[in-house]
Design goal:
Blueprint (H helix, E strand, L loop, with lengths): L2 E6 L4 H14 L3 E4 L38 H11 L4 E4 L2 E2 L5 H14 L4 E6 L4 H6 L7 H16 L4 E4 L4 E5 L10 E4 L3 H10 L2 E3 L6 H17 L7 E6 L4 H9 L4 E5 L9 H14 L2 H8 L1
Parallel strand pairs: 1-2, 1-11, 2-3, 3-5, 4-5, 5-8, 8-9, 9-10, 10-11
Antiparallel strand pairs: 6-7
Helix pairs in contact: 1-2, 1-9, 2-3, 3-5, 6-7
């Protein structure tokens, strides 16, 4: 069975809430929210997928001065209170821009508010000017991301813990009185990112929108990495696709890619909320989302 989620970036909070409520009713599996905290004016950083087919969805700067930016956890808290089944993902949350104890507190709150629907998609970031503005080191973002994951899992355990790492020195603390399980989904398409996801993650999310052939290569490589580390835990690959027909989705499914994600703005479109809802419902029917929801619901 194929699950189909939506990903969104550049929509305001109210629009995202309306989208999530409709997607929840129509049977979409998850809503993944991208994030940046601010607009660096005239930035020179390049996204890792710039110049590749994987970046074909966005024309121009990813973070332009008119791009709508949101706090994904504030929006997901509102979604959690307004929906019953859709999963709440981040694709991706920039972990090294925050202290992991603050991230732990926020994710625990939303996880319990949503009755266990959070998917914490984590990335190290690429926009150097954003790190500079927030006074966070850019060059150590990869190692800090890995250490953030280690601290998060200790914080989610519900037990007191001590952490003495390269970037964070935490005395004996307890973040929550009980264990909270939150899947960590790592993003990125490069060899190091795939290796990191296989080694540390509960899942992986594509960066950009690779072609079918590119997606298949990436999934094959991350499977090889997991075999290298002898990983046997449940591991989901969330593959972002450019597909508008069931036959296109079926091609991915036939090659073992069953957690698919489409850009919300390709389906959620129209001059009014009513038009956007109607177009999303039509797409859900065309792509088989409604039928699968009715079978499993």
């Amino acid at each position: 069975m194929t699950s189909l989620g939506l990903c969104a970036f550049g929509m305001n909070g109210r629009e995202l809430l309306e989208l999530a409520i409709s997607a929840d009713q129509l049977g979409f599996d998850a809503l993944w929210l991208g994030e940046h905290i601010l607009h660096p004016t005239g930035y020179g950083s390049d996204h890792p997928t710039d110049g590749t087919q994987a970046h074909r969805h966005h024309a121009g700067p990813i973070v332009a001065t008119n791009t709508e930016l949101i706090d994904p956890w504030v929006v997901h808290a509102a979604i959690a209170a307004s929906t019953t089944r859709i999963r709440l993902g981040t694709a991706v949350y920039l972990a090294p821009l925050r202290h992991p104890l603050l991230t732990a507190r926020t994710t625990i709150t939303v996880q319990e508010l949503s009755a266990g629907r959070v998917l914490l998609g984590v990335g190290a970031g690429w926009l150097k000017e954003e790190f500079t503005a927030l006074e966070q080191p850019y060059t150590t973002r990869m190692s800090r991301t890995e250490e953030c994951i280690e601290v998060l899992r200790a914080a989610w355990s519900g037990e007191p813990f001590v952490h003495n790492g390269k970037h964070f020195d935490i005395g004996s603390v307890q973040v929550h009185p009980r264990q909270v399980d939150i899947p960590v989904i790592l993003g990125g398409n490069g060899p190091k990112a795939l290796d990191r996801a296989a080694r540390l993650g509960d899942g992986w999310f594509t960066s950009g929108t690779p072609s079918f052939e590119g997606s298949l290569e990436l999934v094959t490589e991350i499977t090889r990495c997991r075999e290298k580390y002898r990983k046997t835990n449940k591991f989901d690959c969330f593959v972002r696709v450019d597909a508008t027909k069931v036959s296109e989705l079926q091609r991915y499914h036939d090659h073992g890619m069953t957690n698919l994600v489409v850009w919300a703005d390709t389906l959620w479109k129209g001059a009014t909320i009513e038009e956007r809802r109607a177009n999303l419902a039509r797409a859900a029917d065309d792509l088989g989302v409604l039928r699968e929801c009715q079978v499993t619901g």
